[in-house]
Amino acid sequence: MVYQIEMAGTGERFEARADESLLQAATSAGVAIPHDCQLGGCGTCRVKVISGTHEYEEFPFGISQEEADAGFMLACQARASSDMVIAAAHVGGDASAPAEIEARVVAVSPLGPGVRHLSIELPEQAELRFNPGQYMNVLLGEGERRSFSMASAAAGSVLDFHIRRVPGGRFTDHMLASLKPGDPLNVELPLGSFRFHVEDYRPLLMVATGTGLAPVKAILESLMDDPDCPPVWLYWGARTEADLYLHDEIQQWGARLYEFQYVPVLSRPGSEWAGRQGYVQHAVCEDFADLSEYAVYLCGSPTMINDARRHFLEKGASINHLYADSFTFQHDAEALANSGT
User: Fold this and answer.
1) What does the pLDDT look like over 155-166, one tens digit per residue?
2) Which first-to-last residue range defines the signal peptide (predicted)?
3) Within the chain, how many helices (H) and strands (E) appear?
4) CA–CA dist 15, 74 (Å, integer)
5) What is the pLDDT of residues 239-288, one digit of tens each?
6) Most buried one in 61, 168, 307, 338, CB count within 10 A?
7) Which residues contact 325 (CB under 8 A, 6 or more apart)?
8) Residue 241 belongs to a domain
């Protein structure tokens, strides 16, 4: 069975078979739908169903039941079961189209337990524009790639990354340790639709786990010393105090951000930890009775993001102002549950 799909707003049309995902059908027809992981985990390909019906083989991890009830679906997993009209999210921003280039390693240094800081320099002729919050692919050859979010605002030719070691990982556990300043590194960038939505005009609630801090840091750096910076709350979840690898630096950000509040939360604190304990999304729910006026940014482990979506929507968070960057695209399916935490 073949169904007719129309993109609301643009009028673009494409055909979708009942045995292929809407994202596959759109891509084959040259119709752009923002996407990242294609595994149903990141939520980037979320679209609004205006009319028509669809189905999943399995309900995807990257969307909550509340979002589905409100008429949203994930195009990478959904299959049409009738003619449809759908509306994709507006990516916006001012980013260049992705390009494959040869960068140079500037430095590799430890940040915290199992986390390394990687700096690379792009060639001057690249002239690429980035949205803070986007990511790059490291190209490993033979079609293999690993994805890492940029941890610095889009300024200059040097970019920073926070890279967590994955035991046995081809890049994070082997190649990264051998890189030296000046070494070439083949990359593809900029990628992804996670970015700051200036058009929202809302206070910002940023919630991250582990190295999910990286794209949040990039966004907040872009807002530093900006007279139009909205109030910002940053909740950062980690296992132990040692895992808060930028704890001291973050405490200085308030001098350059408007009404900045930083709340670190540990799930496995030591006996000397006097701060918040438990899961970071639960700490947010303890502190906010109503989230209806906030723009919410979630970045880190899929488990946190899925749970946060559910609880935050119950607290009144707007589905249209809830943005997620799940680290599902960084590792293969076996690592999804632990990536970014």
Assistant:
1) 678 999 999 998
2) none
3) 7, 19
4) 17
5) 999 999 999 999 999 999 999 999 999 999 999 999 999 999 999 999 99
6) 61
7) 42, 133, 149, 192, 194, 212, 215, 297, 298, 299
8) yes
d(CA 224, CA 260): 11
Number of separate domains in the chain: 3
The whole domain housing 116 covers: 99-191
Instruction: Strand 232-238: give its sheet, edge to edge.
Output: 276-277, 260-266, 232-238, 204-209, 295-300, 322-326
79-80 vs 144-149, strand pairing mode: unpaired
Percent of the chain past pLDDT 90, that is, above it, reads 69
Q: Which pLDDT score, from 0 to 100, does residue 43 have?
A: 77
Whether 35 has a pLDDT exceeding 90, the answer reads: no
Burial environment of residue 118 by CB neighbours within 10 A (0 to 12, 13 to 18, 19 or more): buried
Cα 322 → chain centroid: 12
DSSP 330: G
pLDDT at 147 over 70: yes
Q: What is the pLDDT of residues 207-246, one digit of tens each?
A: 999 999 999 999 999 999 999 999 999 999 999 999 999 9
- In a domain, residue 94? The reply is no
> Of how many residues is the chain composed?
341
Nearest alpha carbon to residue 43 among 53, 33, 52, 51 = 33
Start-to-end CA distance of the chain, whole Å, equals 42
Which of 220, 232, 290 shows the shortest CA–CA distance to 261? Answer: 232
